[in-house]
Specification:
heterodimer, A: mainly alpha, 8 helices, 0% strand, elongated
Chain lengths: 162, 162
């Protein structure tokens, strides 16, 4: 699989070309991307802080997760869709941008952290969802998640500065 | 003193020059600005959706408002400080831009709206005139969310529409 050829094909596509040539398109998609990421980070921060033992607006961590994660996922889908469009527009440049590549790696790490939490300590959430402080595994997962997502924001912003 | 001469003076100050010359300052400050936006938007989303009767309706509105209001004001302070660094560093880009001033107007408007919207729930004995505004709570909560999105849109577009 020739990556460069695929990147070029994406770059030359009519969708990517429109993204570059239709003046308001890139800024509009980018703005939607910003709205999406602030909602991802904003909602995930509430859950992560609760996992770290900081009270939210309800006692149960289980109910908080059930309540907020649909918003987080919805915002994340919007972030991915807009992100793909943004990437397509300047695919060749971004593929060589260290900040972009690092951001993708950290996103994978954030996902892995969520998976470890979900298939690990979250399985027993019925036992600890209303206790303070939460178990160590939950506190580590929450802290790691928060740090990783903040790093994603920094790397994302830095893409335009290298 | 005209705006132009103020901008020229500000641009030439050691502080403004430092902000521009040290390469990591502007991207770092912008990143912190985005993280603070996430805190405000996440808090506003939960609070406004509760006041609109959509989210967490099993929790008293006062409990939700009390949990997130301090975070919102703290994050708004961070936004003001980081915003000032950006404005001082690049006054020629920011202060002549009508989108920037429109954004400032929107920020002031939504901040004042937030203060009035939250006040009845923070004050154990709100004055009668404030209680009478109860009927406006739901539409005001939705309008608040709309304004925050508007602020983000203006913020991103400053870079595109000079």
């Amino acid at each position: 699989m020739d990556i460069q050829k695929n990147l070029q094909a994406v770059y030359d596509s009519s969708l990517a070309t429109s993204m570059r040539q239709v003046g308001v398109l890139f800024p509009t998609i980018e703005t939607l991307h910003v709205i999406a990421i602030t909602l991802v980070l904003g909602t995930i921060a509430v859950v992560d802080l609760r996992l770290m033992g900081y009270a939210s607006h309800r006692r149960s961590a289980q109910r908080l997760i059930a309540e907020l994660l649909p918003f987080t996922w919805g915002a994340f889908v919007l972030a991915v869709v807009t992100g793909l469009l943004l990437f397509a527009a300047k695919s060749i440049d971004y593929a060589q941008n260290n900040m972009f590549l690092a951001k993708m790696c950290v996103l994978v790490l954030a996902g892995a952290n969520m998976a470890v939490f979900h298939f690990g300590i979250h399985r027993r959430i019925g036992a600890w969802h209303e206790t303070f402080p939460p178990p160590v595994g939950a506190r580590v997962a929450g802290f790691t998640s928060l740090v990783l997502w903040v790093v994603v924001v920094f790397l994302g912003r830095w893409i335009g500065f290298v | 003193m005209s705006l132009d001469s103020f901008i020229t003076w500000l641009y030439a100050t050691p502080l403004s020059t430092l902000i521009r010359d040290v390469s990591w300052v502007i991207p770092a400050v912008q990143s912190i600005h985005i993280v603070a936006i996430a805190v405000v938007v996440g808090s506003a989303m939960i609070t406004d959706l509760r006041l609109a009767g959509i989210l967490a309706t099993d929790e008293a509105p006062a409990a939700v408002v009390r949990r997130y209001t301090p975070w919102m004001w703290g994050a708004l302070l961070v936004l003001l400080l980081t915003g000032m660094v950006m404005s001082i560093g690049e006054p020629d880009r920011v202060l002549v831009n009508s989108l920037f001033w429109f954004k400032m107007g929107a920020v002031v408007t939504v901040s004042v709206l937030t203060w009035f919207l939250h006040r009845p729930f923070l004050n154990p004995a709100p004055p009668a005139w404030l209680v009478r505004l109860n009927s406006f709570t739901k539409p005001a909560a939705w309008f608040s969310l709309l304004l925050w999105v508007g602020v983000i849109i203006c913020g991103r577009w400053i870079a595109y529409a000079v």
